[in-house]
Design a protein that fits this description.
Elements lengths: L12 H15 L6 H10 L9 H12 L5 E5 L5 H10 L5 E6 L2 H8 L8 E6 L11 E7 L10 H11 E12 L2 E2 L5 H17 L9 H14 L10 H10 L4 E9 L2 E2 L5 E3 L1 E7 L1
Parallel strand pairs: 1-2, 1-4, 2-3, 4-5
Antiparallel strand pairs: 5-10, 6-9, 7-10, 8-9
Helix pairs in contact: 1-2, 1-5, 3-4, 7-8
This protein binds S-adenosylmethionine.
The site of S-adenosylmethionine (SAM) has 22 residues, from α4.
């Protein structure tokens, strides 16, 4: 029997959203439905995945990708980072492992069409418990850090450092968190859920479930959403964390500046930084 799901294309955002919805019903437990909803939000244009960061990231990542390189993707909300790595490699064969806490994005990756010449595996793992030693020539991580509880950040970074091969490179993207006025957590969560749902509902994309089910999921997830890590306000604060995690930061690049308005109408600086470390 032909397995239609096993032929998903990574740029079929509606197909990815449907797959994530289906897998998320079974797998999204600890994340509160984040990954089950993520595909819909991305297909509706509310999340860009790597988005504008790709332009600055691609040449630096390409420089680190030699034939046969072992690449760890540390944290991935959907197949987006994997697909970016493969596109950046431009035919260079790689051995890629995508690791995440939640099985939903990993199951969606399992539904993709195979990438010719690439070995792609997945591992459901808490990076704070990663036990790989000297294993990866390149570790790529995009926007994973704010999702890690503050008390576990250094442990996660130390584990990634130990997993890096002796001449390996960490290609790490993190954004800073600044707001002129901080919203109360409850007010921000409720406003975010309402705004997100109304944008999804008016997006016109084909939905994988009824609007009522999607609204319920967005509200359920909004309660679990972690408060913004206000201590990560500057690139120096993030570089200090990397140093505490035993990395040597070699380069910091300011990438897209996407200052935006929050769900409660306040301007919030949203700057992405790329850190190359070893
Ligand atoms: C914001 S998402 C990544 C977004 C990224 N721009 C993308 O397109 O995939 C962060 C991911 O890191 C994962 N994550 C957070 N903490 C983790 C941990 N301790 N171990 C493994 N994965 C983790 C989350 O499950 C989530 O999928």
């Amino acid at each position: 029997m032909t397995n239609k799901a096993a032929r998903l294309s990574p740029d079929d955002l509606v197909g990815l959203a449907q797959a994530a919805w289906r897998h998320g019903e079974r797998h999204c437990v600890d994340c509160g439905g984040y990954h089950q909803a993520w595909g819909i939000l991305r297909a509706a244009g509310l999340h860009g995945g790597l988005g504008a960061d790709e332009t600055d990231l691609a040449p630096r990542l390409a420089a680190a990708l030699s034939p046969g390189a072992r690449v760890l993707v540390a944290g991935s909300a959907d197949p987006g980072i994997l697909d970016f790595v493969v596109r950046t490699a431009a035919g260079t064969p790689l051995d890629i492992l995508v690791a995440d806490l939640c099985a939903t994005p990993l199951s969606v990756i399992g539904d993709l069409k195979p990438y010719p010449g690439m070995t792609v595996r997945t591992q459901q793992v808490d990076l704070a418990e990663l036990d790989h030693l000297d294993s990866w020539d390149v570790i790529v991580s995009h926007s994973m850090l704010p999702h890690v509880p503050a008390e576990l950040r250094i442990e996660v970074l130390k584990r990634l450092r130990r997993a890096l091969a002796p001449r390996g490179r960490l290609v790490f993207v993190a954004r800073t968190f600044q707001a002129a006025v901080r919203d109360s957590a409850a007010e921000e969560k409720a406003a975010w859920a309402q705004q997100t749902f109304s944008r999804v509902a008016s997006s016109g994309i084909p939905m994988p479930a009824s609007l009522a089910e999607i609204e319920a999921l967005i509200h359920r997830y909004s309660v679990k959403r972690r408060a913004p890590p206000w201590d990560l306000a500057t690139p120096e604060a993030i570089a200090d964390l990397l140093t505490l995690g035993d990395f040597e930061v070699m380069e910091i690049v300011k990438m897209a500046d996407r200052t935006h308005e929050t769900a409660v109408g306040q301007a919030r600086a949203k700057e992405s930084y790329l850190f190359i470390a070893r």
